[in-house]
Amino acid sequence: MGLSRMRVLERANVVTRCRSRLLPTALVAVAALACASAVTRSAAAQAAAPQLIVPLDGRDETEPAPDELLSPDEGADGTPVERADQPWCFDGEGIEALTPTVCHYSPKPPESAPDTLVIFLHGVTKFGTTWQWNGQRGLARAAKARGFEVITPRGRLGAGSKKFADHWNWPSSAEGQKALESEVLAEWKAAQQTLEKRNGRAFARVYVWGFSAGAYYSASLALRGRLDVAGYAIFAGGGAPKGVERWAKGTRPKPPIYVGYGHKDRARRDPARLGRALKAMGWKSLVVGRPNVGHSMTDAQVREAWAFLGGGKLPKGNANATARPSDGASSAKPVKPGRGSASTRQSKPSKPSKASKTSHRPKPPKSARSKKQSRK
Questions:
Q1: What is the mean pLDDT of residues 325-329?
Q2: How many CB atoms lie within 10 A of CB 94?
Q3: What is the rounded distance in angstroms from the CA atom of residue 308 to the CA atom of residue 285?
Q4: Gap between the Cα atoms of 197 and 214, Å rounded
Q5: pTM for this model (two decimals)
Q6: What is the dihedral of CA 259, 262, 265, 269, to 10 degrees?
């Protein structure tokens, strides 16, 4: 074998060895580059895609529902884990802590602040979590879009049922109302007065909105006439105690009430029952049940509530709405006109009788009749 041939084979072996050594590294580099490219494309796609509004109870889909957190959290060894309290108000996006327990957002500075205030009551929130932050951010977006100020006060620990003893809740029971309601309402009033002093004028309208546990407490306040407000909006909750049609019929004032709920909500019977009670009492209300909505508060419901309470125009031709804004509106599933239903059934038009034909002929004037008779 010649020297040149040997050199060629040697060079070929070196190249082969180098390729074998570099191939894994090259594959890793190519894979990393491909992954980075995929992540970049995914991030770009997510940024371009419309973002879903986070449920206003402040929980994301990975967090358990409140009724799954009835017992204290346990560590790996089974011992309870103590949770530290978290700041109630989200820090950012224009949300401020008016007090440590009352958050506030305004889309405009005090000198041009809106003349409408919404007091938003949260759902049950476990101590030591920050579920409420997403809800506060969602309300701030709604306030910016609709043009109102909003405060989100905190409930009281264990104010509701005993199974939610470690949750911030509202005094929905008679015992809780007797012990806590006066200080709860005084806190809201103090926050309102602080804002009015800052803005240099009083609010023209104050509304109370409530979600989940906050919806039940809002309904209780409305039915008992505890607040002199311009209206209520009740989302994913709200109940009507037995006999409420009798004892609440004479409640004054009777501000309008919006009730929005989803047919997939396990608690859907309560707001439906509230709607029937409001109708029986002749209470001005709009009750809307949506077939594909669960235990949530949606943008569409916020728009409807805002419009019904006087902040805008109701959308026309809303197929999901189960009642229109009128006194005593009730709740029912949307009904599609079926074959032979009253809305589609039409009878064949009957042929007019001889008498009806002649009865509609115009009579000739007297002069024409007299000429005709003279010819005869």
A1: 37
A2: 13
A3: 9
A4: 27
A5: 0.66
A6: 50
Q: Residue 11 is inside which H or E element, if any?
A: helix 3-48
Q: Let me know: does 146 contact 311? Beta carbons within 8 Å.
A: yes
The helix/strand/coil state of 233 is strand
Q: 314 — phi, psi (to 5°)? A: -70, 140
The Cα 186–Cα 227 span in angstroms is: 11
Beta bridge partners of 105: 150
Q: 187: closest CA among 152, 158, 213, 161?
A: 152
Give the three-state DSSP class for 36.
Answer: helix
Residue showing tokens 């707001």 = 271
Query: Strand locations in the chain, DSSP E?
Result: 96-99, 102-105, 116-121, 125-126, 149-153, 156-157, 167-169, 205-211, 231-235, 257-262, 284-290, 326-327
Of 137, 140, 160, nearest in space to 66 by CA: 160
| Residue-wise pLDDT tens digits, 353-368 | 444 443 344 455 555 4
CA distance 38 to 30: 12
What are residue 363's DSSP bridge partners? none
d(CA 21, CA 216): 69
pLDDT in tens, 200-253: 999 999 999 999 999 999 999 999 999 999 999 999 999 999 999 999 988 988
Half-sphere exposure of 37 (CA within 13 A, CB side): 6
